[in-house]
Write a structure and sequence with these properties.
This protein is an alpha+beta fold. It is built from 7 helices and 10 strands. The strands form 3 sheets. It has a 4-stranded antiparallel β-sheet, with no helix packed on it. A 3-stranded mixed β-sheet has the order 2-10-7, with no helix packed on it. The chain has a 3-stranded antiparallel β-sheet with strand order 4-8-9, with no helix packed on it. Helix 3 packs antiparallel against helix 7 and helix 5 packs antiparallel against helix 6. It is rod-shaped and about 140 Å long. The termini are far apart. About 6% of the residues have low confidence.
């Protein structure tokens, strides 16, 4: 009998189940996830709220482990609410930047003695599948934007300055033209000679002035142009004193007496502009041709006296 008992005692360690080593635990510290609220559907780039409630050993601090936040979901707001000495709630707001059914992985909360201290215990949330829908655009064709157009204040200041400068330029130009017109009227009153006599005499005086011989070509052509413009005023009552060459030519097209002189007039104006603005040195032959054009225009537009009728015997 004793031998049988000894045999049983010897064999019992071999047949007993193996014991697993217990997980290391910190005495007096525990944390558990008691509730979680995570939506299962949301829209792309539309913020959604989640809530996690945890129970823990009083006297410790619960912190969110941000290293475990789910990818594709950006944390935009975080709020911790202490419900009781042993319970705490985390309200987290996420912004999804993924489409389709995405995995909202588990979030870890750590129990610590103090902020930044050693982790004593941890609790993980449950993994959730969230269906992220594309953003729905409003496609109503009758929708109209009722907001006023946005105009930067600096642009308004520049526009106001341009308007003021434009008004000043307009008034100055009008005053200048009126002054020139009055001056021409006074000159016409003082000089009662015919328009062609005045123009031809001034051309002759210009040729005798020596401007051409002293190579003052620009001044020469300016004086010649002033003679032509004064003749327009005296003969046709057209104030072309401030007209460009193109504007003067447009006025000439409306004057019947100049119908056959438009081509040489245009050539003279082009030649004059090259000398005055492009600083081109004109040839002697070109100068003579331009002076001849102005003389011809004056002579051919001068009214001819009616032929005297023969005395009837």
């Amino acid at each position: 009998m004793k031998k049988l008992l000894l045999l049983i005692l010897c064999l019992s360690p071999l047949t007993a189940p193996a014991q697993q080593p217990a997980a290391p635990q910190t005495a007096g510290s525990r944390i558990n996830l008691t509730a979680q609220q995570v939506p299962q559907q949301t829209s792309f780039a539309a913020a959604f709220d989640t809530r996690f409630e945890l129970s823990h050993t009083p006297g410790y601090v619960v912190e969110l482990d941000k290293e475990t936040l789910p990818e594709g979901f950006e944390l935009t707001a975080e709020k911790q609410e202490k419900l009781s000495p042993g319970t705490v709630a985390y309200d987290l707001t996420f912004m999804p930047f993924t489409l389709g059914v995405s995995t909202f992985t588990a979030v870890t909360f750590n129990l610590k003695e103090q902020t930044g201290g050693q982790t004593l215990a941890s609790a993980r949330s449950e993994q959730v599948q969230i269906d992220v829908k594309p953003v729905k655009y409003f496609d109503e064709q009758t929708l109209r934007d009722i907001r006023p157009p946005y105009i930067p204040s600096s642009l308004l200041i520049w526009l106001l300055c341009l308007i003021v400068l434009g008004l000043i330029a307009y008034v100055a130009r009008k005053f200048y033209k009126d002054a020139r017109s009055r001056a021409k009227e006074l000159a016409q009153i003082q000089d009662n000679r015919p328009a062609d006599v005045i123009a031809l005499s001034k051309i002759e005086a210009l040729l005798q002035s020596g401007l051409w011989e002293r190579a003052q070509y620009k001044i020469f052509y300016i004086e010649l142009g002033d003679i032509l413009r004064e003749y327009f005023w005296r003969r046709f009552k057209q104030d072309v004193s401030s007209d460009t060459s193109a504007e003067l030519l447009r006025r000439a097209r409306k004057i019947p007496q100049l119908k056959n002189l438009l081509l040489p007039l245009r050539e003279y104006l082009n030649s004059s502009d090259l000398v005055k603005f492009a600083k081109v040195t004109p040839a002697q032959q070109t100068m003579q041709q331009d002076v001849g054009t102005v003389q011809k225009l004056v002579k051919e537009t001068t009214p001819r006296p009616a032929p005297a009728q023969e005395e009837v015997r």
